[in-house]
Amino acid sequence: MTELLYAPLQIGDLRLDVPVVQAALSGYSDWPMRVMARRHGAPFTLCEVMLDKFLVQLKERKKTRHFLYISDEEHPVGGQLMGAEPEQFSAAAGRLVEAGFDVIDINFGCPVKKVLGKCRGGFHLGQPEVALEIIRRTRDVVPSSTPVTVKLRRGIDDSQQSVDQLHEILSGCQQLDIASVTVHGRTVEQRYVGPSNWDFLRQLKLDFPDLTMLGSGDLFTAADCLAMLQQTGLDGVSVARGAIGNPWIFSQVRALLAGLPLPGPPTIAEQRETLADHFGLARELYGDQRAAIPMRKFGIRYSAHHPQHAEVRADFTQVRTVEDWQQLLTRWYQGDGPGAALPADLHKVQADVTPGSS
Fold first, then answer.
1. pLDDT digits (tens, 9 = 90+) for 21-76
2. What angle, 0 to 180 degrees and rounded to 10, lies between the N-to-C axes of helices 268-286 and 31-39?
3. Is 116 helix (H, G, I), strand (E, B) or coil?
4. Is 137 contained in some domain?
5. Are residues 27 and 171 in the same domain?
6. Do 47 and 79 meet the contact criterion of CB atoms below 8 Å apart?
């Protein structure tokens, strides 16, 4: 067995053999996406963020079962929560534990305006007392054997006050037995504009050496993941937008972490197999009448790997039915041939994707 260049990632009692995980992605990281990431090498994934109020009131119905759907092959898997009131937040955390999630993740990182306006997500970075009360109540209600983790950004803005508030929350995390934290290198004010500040993440790890810390932001390729580990000294990294339509990023980063050459882009045949598997999982979860629409956004992102990506992307935007999907695969993914390398400016190409939890 090839020895990895980086240590496994420890989150509570969970030992992940590689320190690269898939982030929670609002509107994306449903069961099919998580399973595809796991099959391609992700050691751990997170479900899309759920509101505490929604989760507490959620009834077991066919149209909503996908929110809490977990299969045996994807363990360990984390459930992510976002909300405003500490009491309701902890009740929702208990619901995630009952559903079978192995880790409960608290979202203090979402920068979306409508979320901030309702005192959720990144809003809590500006009120450490409330944030720590949410963490405390969540940790109290979740069994001690279940890790509780926290997702944050590096602050509301670039002010010293924001840095101090972040430090106060992280100090509290250490005292409250939080298994790990993931810090996005942009501020809430930045949203998705401008670079993720990896230098800030490096200093933050130096300030909190005993806190298991993952980084996020600007991770679009396997090389990006390795670079963040090297430049920051973090314990792990969490891949968000870079994993949408690109489950191969996890097998590629495994190769780099083992000191092997970077694998080439997935071939046309490999892409077809993955697209077919992903769509099959979507049909299983959503049914034939509903599967094509949520899968369309994934197909658009998968198209970046195709040599004729502009034409393939345009066709994916027109998909409405199972038949449309199958015809597209027949048209563009028959036979085999080399795939396309992802463009160097992928972050610009994918700028239209702004998952709420990233």
1. 999 998 999 999 999 999 999 999 999 988 877 787 776 666 667 889 999 999 99
2. 140
3. helix
4. yes
5. yes
6. yes
Concatenating the DSSP letter of every residue in 305-345 gives GSTTHHHHHHHHTT--SHHHHHHHHHHHSSS----PPPPTT
> Pick from 153, 23, 147: which is nearest to 96 by CA?
147
Residues 253 and 275 in one domain: no
Is residue 323 packed enough to be buried (19+ CB in 10 Å), middle (13-18) or exposed (0-12)?
Answer: exposed
Tell me whether the omega of the peptide bond preceding residue 247 falls within 30 degrees of 0, making it cis. Answer: no
Place of tokens 């992802």: 342
Does a cis peptide bond (omega within 30 degrees of 0) precede residue 266? no
Query: In the numeric block, which tokens belong to residue 126?
Result: 């500006």
Same domain, 219 and 286: no
pLDDT, one tens digit per residue, over 190-236 is: 888 889 999 999 999 999 999 999 999 999 999 999 999 999 999 99
Which of 5, 35, 36, 33 has its CA nearest to residue 19?
5
Alpha carbon 166 to its chain centroid, in Å, reads 21
pLDDT digits (tens, 9 = 90+) for 341-356: 987 655 544 544 444 4
Residues 80 and 223 in one domain: yes
Tokens 């939890």 belong to residue: 357
Cα–Cα dist 29/21, whole Å: 12
Structure tokens at 211: 């806190």
Q: Is 250 helix (H, G, I), strand (E, B) or coil?
A: helix
**Where does residue 141 rank: exposed (0-12), middle (13-18), buried (19+ CB within 10 A)?**
middle
- Give the N- to C-terminal CA distance of the chain in Å, as an integer: 34
Total domains, the chain: 2
Cα dihedral 194→196→198→203 (10° resolution): 90
Six-digit token pair at 17? 């053999």
Query: What one-character-per-residue DSSP string does 117-182 give?
Result: TTT-GGGGGG-HHHHHHHHHHHHHHS-TTS-EEEEEES-SSSSHHHHHHHHHHHHHHHHTT--EEE
Same domain, 112 and 225: yes
